[in-house]
Structures are given as C-alpha cells and as structure tokens.
Predict the 3D structure of the following.
Amino acid sequence: MAPMMRLVLGLGVLVLILSAVALGLPSYVTAKRSVVINAPEYVVYPYLNNLRRYQDWAPWSDKDPNIRLTYSGPPEGNGAKAEWVSDVAAVGNGSIQIVESKPSSSMTLAADVKGIQGTSFFELAPAGAGSKVTWSFGFETGSSPVKRWKGLMLDRYIGEFYEEGLEKLKETVEASRATSTPQPAPVVPAAPVEAPAADGAETPAGGETVVPEQAPAEQP
C-alpha cells in the first residue's frame, strides 16, 4: 500500500475515533465562576446592567487595549447590545445582548464568544455584609462532534476569562465605594422653646398666650 494511501486511511480512522468519542460528551456544557464583593447587590448591579461600564472591569479590555466596541439599543437593561472586534487571538470577535434583566437579582444575555453562540448569566445573592456574584456561560453542542469537543475546552477557556473579570469587578466596585463621599446623617430639627408667659397670663393647650382683661382703674 502506498504511503499516501496509508496516511489517508489513518486520518480517516482517527476522525471516526474522535467522532465516536464525541458522542459520549455532553450535549450542553457550562462554565461558572463566582466572587464575593463587599457591597450590596443594588450597588453591584449597575455595573452589569450597563454594558458601557464593562470597560471598567471586563477581561477583554485588559487583554486588548485596542479592542473596537460598538453599542446599540438602549443604554442599559433589556435590548442593550455590545459587539467587539479584536485582533488578539485570545479575545477574538463577539457580542452580548441583555435579554432579561431583574434588578439586583439576575441577568440573562445572548452571547457570541469567538463563534460560539450561547447564553451568559449573572446571579447576585446576599453573602454576609456583601453579595455573591456568579457569572456563567452555557451552550448547546447538539450532535456536532466539533462543538462537543469545543464544549470540552469551554471551562478552561471561559473560566479563566470569568475569573479575571470577576476579580476586576470586585476591585472596581470596592474601590469606588471606598472613595465615595459619605452622605451626612439627616439633621433632626430641635423642638421650639416656648417663651415663659407673662405674670397672670394663661397658656391654653393650643400654645397661644392669653392675657386676662384688666379691670378699669377707679376714678378718685
């Protein structure tokens, strides 16, 4: 058998083996990371709900300072969308769009990460004096062997990005709270001090001073 034929047959067998192994891989995969931030949920949530604020903490901004971002839809909340183009292979091209926003609780985004279409989630929950933020990404691999092998590497690829992003989010939120000007406590007005009534004057319940009528002086 010619060497070229053996090579072709070998590659064919390898493809069959990889396809057979792929059938045993999960049809839906997720990657998830969490961080505890020393701030309540309502303070953290605006950093997630406004896609323009992602530049303050999102991992792709650090990996590619020249990333090109485009925004569309409303400034925040349902329908807000961000798309990016990057020449850095680790970042690539992609987009996210908010499809469901529950203030201070959770958020769902349609995401395209380097050609992988899936769903990204943010969940916020109380954690002591602060809040726990969980960021996850999941997608259907279907019956495609290629997508199933991509799913096998998802946690390693996405997980690293999410860890870096959540740590930067924690630093950003906590630093902002540390430098913000504390609001002064409300001043309670002091109770009015009533002047003492004149001699012989009577003070009724309403607070008004009533002076009794004086009898006219007798003529000599």
Observations:
- The chain is about 30% helix and 25% strand.
- The first strand starts at residue 28 and ends at 37.
